[in-house]
Amino acid sequence: MRTHLCGELRASHAGETVKIAGWVHRRRDHGGVIFIDLRDREGWVQVTLHPEEQPEAYAAAEKLRAEYVVAITGEVHARPKGAENPNIPTGEIEVKASSIEVLAESETPPFLIEDDIDASEELRIRYRYLDLRRPEMLQMLRLRHKVVKAIRDFFDEEGFLEIETPIITKATPEGARDFLVPSRLEPGNFWALPQSPQLFKQLLMIAGVDRYYQIARCLRDEDPRSDRQFEFTQLDMEMSFVDQATIIDTTERMFKRIFKDSLGLDLQTPFPTMNYRESIERYGSDKPDLRYGLELIDVTSVFADTQIKMFQSVISKGGLAIAIRVEGQAQMARKDLDALTLVAKNLGAGGLAWIGFKEDEISSPLARVLSKAEIEGVRKTCGASTGDLVLIVCDSDPTAFMAMGAVRTDLADRLDLIPALVPEDPEAWKFLWVVDPPVFEWSEEEKRWDPVHHPFTAPKAEQEALLDSDPGAVTAEAYDIVLNGWEVGGGSMRIHRPDLQRKVFELIGIDEETAKRRFGWFLKAFEFGAPPHGGIAPGIDRIVAKMMGLDHIRGVIPFPKTGAYTDPMTGAPDPVDQRTLKELHLKSTD
Ligand code: ASP
User: pLDDT band at 225, cuts 50/70/90?
Assistant: First the structure.
């Protein structure tokens, strides 16, 4: 139907007769001459029509409206001097149409098909097929494609096999709620959608596959958050007979390849590595954004003999006073301080104190109870100068750190500390490995240990004995990769001995009978010779979102749910008829 794509025509095509097809981007009537910008995936080109020179085509053009689909035949001409458009790649030429065929008409679209529109996200998702016509969205699809292709090329060259694992399966524990699928053939029984291919990739190692990867869809029934969707895509990989260093090295080389092939950038490797606890103590987070400072400072010792009742009671029980110095913000508005207090409280802190260091006084809600020595102590420990603000949370460990971590992220936002993305700037990409997290964290709610990663994560071999005496102190052979404040991948070396796996199940409250029922099939495989193995799963949506400078993954998913987890395009979820429910042996209680 066509000889060229609209967006690829250049001055070198001048004199050629071409056939192009696409959407009417714009139609302008300029005193007798009609200009049509015809758009396809590669961009748009100007088509011109004169009533005398091309009477038939001109008549057809008069009826065209935005987003009509047309096929045009015409000759490529250099634009007259002064009429060039240096802002578009086809700006030196135009196509003088000799014929126009309308292939499809279009209603007026609900928003303009161009970049930087202000249509609501709901509307854009409702008409996603129109949204995807916009150049920046097509660019996103292209980038996503390039990222996935770089991943496939890389792993192919490294001797990995791409293998698919089931989508309808049994629940896999990644710490989220499962999506369930009722079984029609077995009344009362349910399948589950996989939260990740975790168990199957481990079985592939037991099967002797040695090196596996997959561009895998993961399905988790989680509450909305900007870096989450019900379904997302991971690069899932697993290797046998390797150690943590090999997996980290392979992952870094994969990231290097992704950035080189899709953005033409050379990432500096190795990425820095930080111990999990250090990350919590310095940034109040296990996924710190290193594009700005605002590091946490321990000021507990300043308050060793304090008269401040609240601080006294927390510190005497082993709690901590953790501070952040904010340069030049001694005059921060009360409403900002109140908002920051709320941020700290949402993370479980009792409150947020502050000291504004002014010329020869301080402003602080604690002004009357702070001793001179404490004020000086805080000033010195934090390196505060006149004009600076110091924020303090006094609470238990790790609440004090986590609350200040949230305050830190909020401050960066509030004070606009994150520079706009300049991809060529090496400082734009702050990668970090966060390693050696604990295997378990104590759940006060459930009164039991929960896995920090997932229950198949290996404890450090030399710490196995601690599993009996002090489970909270056991470090995992696990690693997360962080990019600009998002965890863009997590992985671990796995348990490959059945006795150790049983013990970990027991500690997280899965008794032998439950373990058998839920994971018996999996544990059985370990009785037949499991190689030492480990892997990782970087999130493709998160990587692409970061590459595009977005703060949510919805923008890089071709057909996402909204931020409130609705799907305005299809209207799902919606009720099904009684017959279908009956077939599935289900009864709605609503
Ligand atoms: N299955 C893990 C996850 O989805 C990744 C891994 O441990 O390889 O987070």
Answer: confident
Please tell me the predicted confidence (pLDDT) of residue 172. 75
Q: Which of 104, 103, 112, 108 is nearest to 133 (CA)?
A: 112
Question: Atom 7, ligand 1: which residue's CA is nearest?
Answer: 491
How many whole angstroms from 38 Cα to the centroid of ligand 1?
46
* Longest Cα–Cα distance in the chain: 95
Rounded distance from Cα 189 to ligand 1 centre (Å): 27
SS3 445: coil
Per-residue model confidence (pLDDT) at position 188: 92
Take residue 171 and report the two structure tokens written for it. Answer: 């629940």
pTM of the model: 0.95
In 55-146, at which residue ranges do the beta strands (DSSP E only) sit? Answer: 69-78, 93-104
8 A C-beta contact, residue 391 and residue 384: no
Angstrom distance (rounded) from CA 349 to CA 337 = 15
pLDDT at 444: 82
Tally Cβ neighbours within 10 Å of residue 585: 14
Helix (H) or strand (E) holding 138: helix 135-157
The confidence score (pLDDT) of residue 518 equals 86
Residue pair 528/226 in contact by the 8 Å Cβ criterion: no
Distance CA 34, CA 47 (A): 8
Gap from CA of 100 to ligand 1 centroid (Å): 54
Mean pLDDT of all residues in 453-470: 94
Residue range 352-370, pLDDT digits in tens: 999 999 998 999 999 999 9
The alpha carbon dihedral of 397, 399, 402, 408 has a sign of negative
- How many CB atoms are located within 10 Å of the residue 446 CB? 10
Name the average pLDDT for the chain: 95
Residue 377 identity:
G
Question: Tokens 């962080």 map to which residue?
Answer: 482
Mean pLDDT of 460-472: 94
Q: Residues 97, 57: contact at Cβ < 8 Å?
A: yes
CA atoms lying within 13 Å on the CB side of residue 313: 3
How does DSSP classify residue 539?
B
